[in-house]
Amino acid sequence: QVPVLRPMDLMVEATPRRVFANAHTYHINSISVNSDYETYMSADDLRINLWNFEITNQSFNIVDIKPANMEELTEVITAAEFHPHHCNTFVYSSSKGTIRLCDMRTSALCDRHAKFFEEPEDPSNRSFFSEIISSISDVKFSHSGRYIMTRDYLTVKVWDLNMENRPIETYQVHDYLRSKLCSLYENDCIFDKFECVWNGSDSVIMTGSYNNFFRMFDRNTKRDVTLEASRENSKPRAILKPRKVCVGGKRRKDEISVDSLDFSKKILHTAWHPSENIIAVAATNNLYIFQDKVN
Amino acid sequence: MLGRGLKRKLSDYEENMAGLSSAFDSSRSLPYPLKRQLVLNMCLTKLQTYKMLVEPNLHRSVLIANTVRQIQEEMRQESNQQPINVCPGITPSSHSYAGAESSGISLQLPSGISQQESNCCDLRSVEDPIENSLLIVSDDDMSSAISSILKDLDFVEDISPPTCLVPTGDDQPKFPENTGLKLEDDRQDLKGAECVFGSFEISNSTSYLKDLAIDDIFEDIDTSMYDSDFCCPPLMPPRPPSLATEEPLKTFPSCNSSSASNIQICRTDLSELDHIMEILVGS
């Protein structure tokens, strides 16, 4: 039989071009490309390694927080990122809610930080879960390189690189969960790692939440909005309707009560186009792309 | 959602826990020591569960261990303020902790206990499902439990035995109750320790084999008999020395479940090497 050409849908197959293997003992949580576009770093729970793109079988260890005795381990690395302009500078966050800024020029092993960012604990909010919810799940430099943003379980914080003792801005992502921490601990949701992103001009920040909700905060106007990424509630090309979670008392129409939130629908990953107002939101197994209303 | 005095089965445990944690969140009348005990119980249960995972999560384990330490410290401070010590007379051993059923084996507590602690203890004598599902653990139990769990998280990178391994009476029984194995001599102890210490290794056996030059694996094999002209069938395929030390692993099939990944890695490696050997030998 003569072979017949059949048109098919485009199939995309991802194949690795390079594999940089065997440098990490623990789970890798971050990778970050350097501004020199020659090197990048990868971070696991206890170590950060520096790679050259052309060299796949060797890396330099630049941070190592593993104690000699594992029984003394109380803190792990949770995220790391290079500075957008200074190729010798990077930050890494920890499970204790701290951020360290390191300069690779000071020493080969950057175990001593150049800056240490930590906010003193609020005693009125103290609970058994205080440390767990203070663990930073993501750290991102602003495009300007002047600020860093961190995400912990309930908040997003913006830090000025010149002020180490507290963030300059704190945004509540879903503070109504504060009274549900035990249940969220029991079902492991309290360990969910949400990402956070800046828009191109560093004026708006965005992060995900539960029930397919994601949140945006305008740093200038101090206004925030909750939006939903789901097919049931929006048609293509329709404008997203702001959502509201009802905390207590009477629930208005269209509001969702805390107890009916679906905690299996979590938006952990979001991205913002570096210059346009186009965002990508990952909701379970669907990817949504939203953009500004086109007039 | 509190229990109704029904007999609690193991399968109801999870339901109970969900009910308990929502009771924690919603109720303001739960006394603080009870809340604390509930959280502690949840922490210890989680740590125990994580220990049995093929790839335990170091981040979570550290966070939970810190929470346990924090509660432990708080209880210690409270007991220091009280005239009588908390729970003396309990044999400190992670053995008994690790083996305790999650349905709550209550440890025998002496009668002369401070009022605060006796609240917890007395309640247990009442048929109250909340209390019955709480595990009251002594200070020493918790310390040794945390120590053993964090030791398990270590990964031995060098071939040489880990320097932080200090076999004491407390730390020796790292294995859960169901192994029932007696580690008799030092060599077996060391092998057992390496099983435990390997529990945090990323199981990437396939890439391990890919990245090793195949020649390296067979470096130690004596292939001289295959080089000669006459055919001399070997009695047994020659095994490289590294495999010989892994033989004991095969003879302990019910080894520590937290090292199951290690054994699986060893077994995968061994079976793949066996396969290659078969091809070489042509048998």
Automatic annotation (TrEMBL), chain A:
InterPro entries for this protein: PP2A_PR55 (IPR000009), PP2A_PR55_CS (IPR018067), WD40/YVTN_repeat-like_dom_sf (IPR015943), WD40_repeat_dom_sf (IPR036322), WD40_rpt (IPR001680)
Molecular function as annotated in GO: protein phosphatase regulator activity
UniProt keyword list: Repeat, WD repeat
TM stretches of this protein: none
GO cellular component terms listed in the entry, alphabetical order: protein phosphatase type 2A complex
PANTHER family, alphabetized: PROTEIN PHOSPHATASE PP2A REGULATORY SUBUNIT B
UniProt similarity note: Belongs to the phosphatase 2A regulatory subunit B family.
Name the record gives this protein: Serine/threonine-protein phosphatase 2A 55 kDa regulatory subunit B
Gene: Ppp2r2b
Automatic annotation (TrEMBL), chain B:
The encoding gene: Sertad2_1
Gene Ontology cellular-component terms listed: nucleus
PANTHER family: CELL DIVISION CYCLE ASSOCIATED PROTEIN 4/SERTA DOMAIN-CONTAINING PROTEIN 2, SERTA DOMAIN-CONTAINING PROTEIN
InterPro entries: E2F-SERTA_domain_protein, SERTA_dom
Organism, as annotated: Chionis minor (Black-faced sheathbill)
Record-given protein name: SRTD2 protein
Start and end residues of each SERTA domain: 32-79
Matching Pfam families: SERTA
